[in-house]
Write a structure and sequence with these properties.
The complex is a heterodimer. Chain A is built from 3 helices and 2 strands, in the order H-H-E-E-H. By secondary structure, chain A is mainly alpha-helical. Chain A has one domain. Chain A has a two-stranded antiparallel ribbon. The relative contact order of chain B is 0.17. Chain B is globular and about 70 Å long. Helices cover 71% and strands 1% of the residues of chain B. Chain B has a single domain, classed as Sodium/glucose cotransporter (Up-down Bundle). By secondary structure, chain B is mostly helical. The two termini of chain B are 35 Å apart. In chain B, strand 1 and strand 2 form a beta hairpin. In chain B, helix 10 runs antiparallel to helix 18. In chain B, strands 1-2 form a two-stranded antiparallel ribbon. The chains are: A mainly alpha, B mainly alpha.
Chain lengths: 105, 608
C-alpha cells in the first residue's frame, strides 16, 4: 500500500475495461470453486434420495453416507479453498503486474 | 433481575448438595479466568478504535483462532452433540454447514469486504450506498439475529448449571450466567479481544477432543458405535442381540448386547428414542417430523424430507456468510489476501473441531439412552457434559475430571459467544440508535452511560427470552439465527459486492423482505413449539407450510435476491455516482493503492 496516490486520470487502472476484466476473472474463479462445492453439497442429499442402498453400505461401522458427511466432507472443502486461494493470489499478482506495466508505458 | 440473582443462588446451592467438586472446580476456574482476562485486556485497550486498529497487526494464525473461538458457541459445543443423539444422521448437516459455510464467505465476500474497510455490516451498508438511513435498517438486523443467537447460548447456560448444581432450576442458570456477563460488559470488561478469543478456541478444542479420545479408548471407536445402530434388530438377526426392537418399547431387562465387533456394549434404548434404521439413515426424524405429523407414510414423507434438507443447507451455508459478529473480525486482517488465508485456516480449525461433537452424540445414544426420556435442560443437549462421567463407573475420578473439562468448555463456549453478541448488540443500540438517531449531539459521558444502560437492558431481555426456551433444542435455535442472517445480510453482501447496479432502495427492500419473512416464520414456529399458540392442527393439515416455515431459507433467500434485482432495476437512477470507484476498491488488489485514493476523495463526508 504505497501512500503515493496515482493520478485519477484515464489510466488503465481506472478504465472501465480494467474493472470489468478484474471482476469477471475473480467471479469466474469464485463460481468455478462454488460449483465444485455445490456439486458435493447438493449432490449428497440426492445420492441419499436415489441410491439409499448404496449410501447405507457399511464402511468400518459407518454408513457410506455418514462417513462422507461426518468426516470426509471437511478435507474436501479444505482442498477447494486451498486451490481457490492459490489461484486468487496468482490472479491478483497478475493484475498488479498489468497495472504496473501500463503505468510504465 | 440482576440484583436478585445472587440471593436466589444461595438456596439453590444449598439444594444442590451433591455437587461434584471436580466439575465445579473446572467450571469455576474457567469463569474466573474468562472474566479476569476480559478485564485485564479491557484495561489495555480502551476504545473501539484501539480494538480495531491494534487488531490489524494480528497474524493469520492468531486471527483464525480468534474467529474460530468466537464462532464456536454453545450450539457447536453442546447442541450439535445433543441433536446428533436425538435425530441422528440429519443433524450432521449442522456441523458440516457451520464449517463449510465459510467457503461461501471466502469465495465471494471475505476479500472484497476487507478491502472496502468496513468494520461492520452497518458500516458497509452506509459506505456502499452513501446512505445513513440504510445503516439504520441494517442495524435492526444486528438485534434480530443477535437475540435469536443469544437464546440458545442462554439455554446452554441453564443446562450446564442445572447439571453442575442438580437442584438448580433451569431459569436460575440463565439468570446467573446472564447477569454475570451482562455486568461484565456493562462495566467495560469482556471486549472481543483477539488473544482472549484465540485462547478460547484452543480451550474448546482441548475440552471437546481429549474426553472423546479417552471415551473411545475405553468404550470403542466412533465407527463401532455408529455400527451398532445397524437397524437389523427388527429382523431377528442372531448375531445382533440388541434388546428388543427399540420402536417396540425395549423393556427387556437383559440390557446389554454386543456387536459383531464385540467391543461395543450398548444399553437398551428407551421408547422415546428413534429406531436404529431411522436414526442412522438420511431423512430421519429431524426432517420428516412435519410430514409424519401429517400422517404421511415413509415413502410419501421422503420428498418433504429432501426439501427440508436443502432448505437447511441453504440457511446454514448462506447464514454463515452473513453473521454480523463474525464479519467484524475480518477487519483485523491486514489485507484482502490475509483475509482469504484467515478464512481458510478458520475452516480447518473449526472443521477439525466439528468432527468431535457428533461422536458424543453417537456414543451417548448407546451408553446414556436415558437422556431420551427427559426434556428441556435434562435432555440430550447435556450429553457432552454428562457422558465423560460414565468413566467413574470404571473406577477413579477420571470421569469427573473429564466431565469438568467439558463443562469448562461449555462455559467458554456460551460465555464468549454471549459476551460477543452482547457487545455488538449494545454497540448497535448505543452507537447507532442513540448516538446517531435519538441524540446525535450527545457528549461522550452520555454515550458511555447509554452503553451501560443498553447492555443491562439487552442482557435483561436476553435472559427473559432465554428463560422461555428450555423446551427448544440449542442447535435448532442457532439454525434459526442462521436462517435470518441468510435471508438478510447474505443477499445484501453478496449482491452489493458483485452487482454494481444495486441501489439503496433495492438493497433495503430485499433485506427487509427476506429478513422479516424469515424472522416471522421462525417466531411463529418457536411460539407454536413452545405451545404459546396452538397450531398443531394447522401444521398437521399443511406439512409443506410447516417445513417452509421451520426452514424458510429455500424461499426467503431467493425472495430477498429477487426483490433486490427488481427494485434496483426500477430505481436505476439512484445508483451511487462513484460506483466504478467503489467497485475498484472492492475488487482491485490493495497493492494498487486505490483505497487511499478513495478515502481522500471522501474525506469531506467521513463519519467516524
Amino acid at each position: 500500500m504505497s501512500p503515493a496516490t496515482p493520478p485519477p486520470s484515464e489510466d488503465l487502472v481506472h478504465s472501465e475495461s480494467f474493472l470489468r476484466s478484474l471482476m469477471r476473472r475473480q467471479l469466474q474463479l469464485s463460481i468455478a470453486c462454488a460449483a465444485a462445492f455445490l456439486v458435493v453439497l447438493l449432490g449428497l442429499p440426492l445420492a441419499n434420495y436415489f441410491y439409499p442402498a448404496l449410501m447405507a453400505t457399511r464402511v468400518a461401522g459407518f454408513t457410506l453416507s455418514w462417513l462422507l458427511l461426518g468426516i470426509l466432507f471437511f478435507p474436501a472443502v479444505w482442498a477447494i479453498s486451498w486451490i481457490f486461494i492459490r489461484r486468487s493470489i496468482a490472479l491478483e499478482e497478475d493484475e498488479v503486474a498489468q497495472a504496473k506495466a501500463s503505468n510504465q508505458r | 433481575m440482576d440484583s436478585l440473582s445472587p440471593l436466589a443462588l444461595i438456596p439453590m446451592l444449598a439444594a444442590g448438595l451433591n455437587v461434584d467438586p471436580w466439575i465445579f472446580g473446572f467450571s469455576f476456574v474457567t469463569v474466573a479466568v474468562t472474566i479476569w482476562m476480559g478485564f485485564r485486556s479491557a484495561k489495555t485497550s480502551k476504545t473501539a478504535s484501539d480494538f480495531f486498529v491494534a487488531g490489524r497487526s494480528v497474524s493469520v494464525g492468531w486471527n483464525a483462532s480468534a474467529i474460530s473461538g468466537e464462532y464456536l458457541s454453545a450450539a457447536s459445543f453442546m447442541g450439535v452433540a445433543g441433536m446428533v443423539m436425538s435425530s441422528g444422521y440429519d443433524a450432521l448437516w449442522y456441523p458440516v454447514c457451520y464449517a463449510c459455510g465459510y467457503l461461501f464467505l471466502l469465495l465471494f465476500i471475505a476479500g472484497p469486504l476487507r478491502r472496502f474497510g468496513a468494520y461492520t455490516i452497518p458500516d458497509f451498508a452506509e459506505g456502499r450506498f452513501d446512505s445513513p438511513i440504510f445503516r439504520k435498517i441494517a442495524v435492526c438486523f444486528v438485534l434480530f439475529i443477535g437475540f435469536f443467537y443469544t437464546m440458545p447460548q442462554m439455554k446452554g447456560a441453564g443446562t450446564t448449571l442445572a447439571y453442575i448444581f442438580p437442584g438448580m432450576p433451569y431459569w436460575g442458570g440463565v439468570v446467573l450466567v446472564g447477569a454475570v456477563i451482562t455486568l461484565n460488559v456493562a462495566l467495560g470488561g469482556m471486549k472481543g479481544i483477539t488473544l482472549v478469543q484465540a485462547f478460547q478456541y484452543w480451550a474448546k478444542m482441548f475440552a471437546i477432543s481429549v474426553p472423546i479420545f479417552v471415551l473411545m479408548s475405553v468404550y470403542g471407536s466412533y465407527g463401532a458405535h455408529v455400527g451398532v445402530n445397524d437397524g437389523r434388530s427388527g429382523m431377528a438377526s442372531p448375531s445382533v442381540a440388541v434388546a428388543g426392537a427399540p420402536s417396540a418399547g425395549a423393556t427387556t431387562p437383559s440390557a446389554v448386547a454386543t456387536t459383531p465387533d464385540g467391543d461395543v456394549v450398548r444399553k437398551p434404548l428407551s421408547s422415546k428414542a428413534p429406531a436404529d434404521q431411522a436414526w442412522v439413515s438420511p431423512f430421519g426424524p429431524l426432517t420428516t417430523k412435519a410430514a409424519k405429523a401429517a400422517g404421511l407414510t415413509d415413502e410419501q414423507a421422503k420428498p418433504y424430507s429432501l426439501l427440508y434438507t436443502y432448505s437447511l443447507i441453504i440457511a446454514l451455508v448462506c447464514g454463515t456468510a452473513g453473521l454480523p459478529h463474525i464479519l467484524v473480525r475480518f477487519y483485523t486482517n491486514p489485507d484482502g489476501v490475509a483475509a482469504k488465508r484467515t478464512t481458510m485456516w478458520v475452516m480447518i480449525l473449526i472443521g477439525i473441531f466439528y468432527v468431535f461433537p457428533p461422536i458424543f452424540g453417537v456414543i451417548g445414544r448407546n451408553l446414556l439412552p436415558e437422556l431420551y426420556n427427559a426434556t428441556g435442560a435434562k435432555g440430550t443437549d447435556k450429553i457432552v457434559l454428562e457422558l465423560p462421567r460414565l468413566l467413574n463407573e470404571r473406577g477413579g475420578i477420571w470421569g469427573s475430571i473429564l466431565s469438568g473439562i467439558t463443562c469448562a468448555g461449555a462455559f467458554a463456549a456460551f460465555m464468549s459467544t454471549f459476551s460477543g453478541l452482547l457487545v455488538s448488540m449494545t454497540g448497535a443500540v448505543a452507537h447507532d440508535v442513540y448516538g446517531r438517531m435519538l441524540k446525535p449531539n450527545a457528549t461522550p459521558e452520555q454515550r458511555m452511560r447509554m452503553f451501560k444502560f443498553a447492555a443491562i437492558g439487552i442482557g435483561g431481555v436476553s435472559m427473559l427470552l432465554g428463560a422461555q426456551v428450555e423446551a427448544l433444542q440449542i442447535n435448532f435455535m442457532v439454525g434459526q439465527a442462521f436462517a435470518i442472517a441468510a435471508a438478510s445480510y447474505f443477499p445484501l453482501l453478496f449482491m452489493s459486492v458483485w452487482w454494481r447496479g444495486m441501489t439503496m432502495a433495492g438493497a433495503a427492500t430485499g433485506m427487509l423482505g427476506g429478513g422479516l419473512a424469515a424472522l416471522a416464520c421462525t417466531t411463529v414456529i418457536n411460539l407454536s413449539d413452545l405451545k404459546k399458540i396452538d397450531l398443531a392442527g394447522f401444521w398437521a393439515a399443511h406439512p409443506l407450510l410447516r417445513i417452509l416455515c421451520e426452514q424458510p431459507a429455500i424461499w426467503t433467500v431467493p425472495l430477498a435476491i429477487g426483490l433486490m434485482i427488481v427494485v434496483s432495476k426500477a430505481t436505476r437512477a439512484q445508483v451511487p455516482g462513484d460506483i466504478r470507484m467503489k467497485m475498484l476498491v472492492l475488487h482491485a488488489p490493495e497493492k494498487l493503492g486505490l483505497k487511499q485514493e478513495y478515502i481522500q476523495e471522501h474525506q469531506a463526508g467521513a463519519g467516524h
